[in-house]
Amino acid sequence: MEEDLSTREEQTAIYENLAKRAVENLKRRGIEAYSVRSKEEARSMCLGMIPKGAVIGTADSATLLQVGVFSALKRRGGNEILNPFVRDDEGHLVAGPDERQEMMRKVLLSDIYICGTNAVTLDGKLVNTDAHGNRVAAMIFGPKKVIIMIGANKIVRDADAALKRIREICAPRNAVRHSIKHHRAEYSELPCVKTGVCSDCHHPWRICRYTTIIEGVRGADQGRISVILVAERLGI
């Protein structure tokens, strides 16, 4: 009998084990956390957390696009969605700089904020780096509820490994994504785009500006942050 050379089943099993450990430690830190097997389950769970009438805020996220959260919300109807990073079919940003800036401010007052993360540690920390700071700001304070969607490929050992992942994977690939898919030529000049390696640059278009580590939530904020960990490779 021909051997099955696909490693999907093995990878899913590993992801599920890692997600289980991360979920346990996120809960210890007062963060609601759930582990699901597929992005379809993740999408269904996310929609179940969002009542009709709630104003939804978000930021740029490859993970959310892959899961299909916002297309599903639009089909369902009943929610206003504030997304400063809506793009046309060719990948160009629809809103201009001033409109995006104003919408990013409005997002901070949304009822529910949905985003991805750069890394989650096995001991339950959420580690992120932003260019504008709009995403990390909303994760920390502002919206009444935060839902964070995470692919299990973003699970790392500790905060040092998370920062390493951001420097070596997230930042270079995200900058290349903006350059190639979103037609932002200015990003092609970044050192990490040219070399594939972070050089801790001082370039005007550097996208690594604001770094946060969420180590838990206060007692009064219990339930504000919910994490959905998916046993799939998602996002950057």
How would you sum up this structure in a few lines?
Helices cover 38% and strands 19% of the residues. With 236 residues, it is of the alpha/beta class.
Count of distinct structural domains:
1
Based on the structure given, which CATH architecture is correct?
A: 3-Layer(aba) Sandwich
In the sheet with the most strands, the strands line up as 1-10-7-4-2-3
Q: What is the molecular shape? A: globular
* Strand proportion: 15-25%
Provide mean pLDDT, rounded: 94
Unreliably modeled segments = none
Question: How would you explain this protein's 3D organization?
Answer:
There is one protein chain. This protein is of the alpha/beta class. Helix content is 38%, strand content 19%. A hairpin with a 4-residue loop joins strand 5 (119-121) and strand 6 (126-130). The longest helix has 22 residues, at 159-180. It starts with 7 loop residues before the first helix and ends in a 6-residue tail after the last strand.
Chain-wise SSE layout:
Blueprint lengths: L7 H21 L3 E5 L2 H10 L6 E4 L3 H6 L1 H8 L3 E3 L14 H11 L4 E4 L3 E3 L4 E5 L3 H7 L4 E7 L3 E2 L2 H22 L10 H5 L14 E5 L10 E6 L6
Parallel strand pairs: 1-10, 2-3, 2-4, 4-7, 5-8, 7-10
Antiparallel strand pairs: 5-6, 6-9
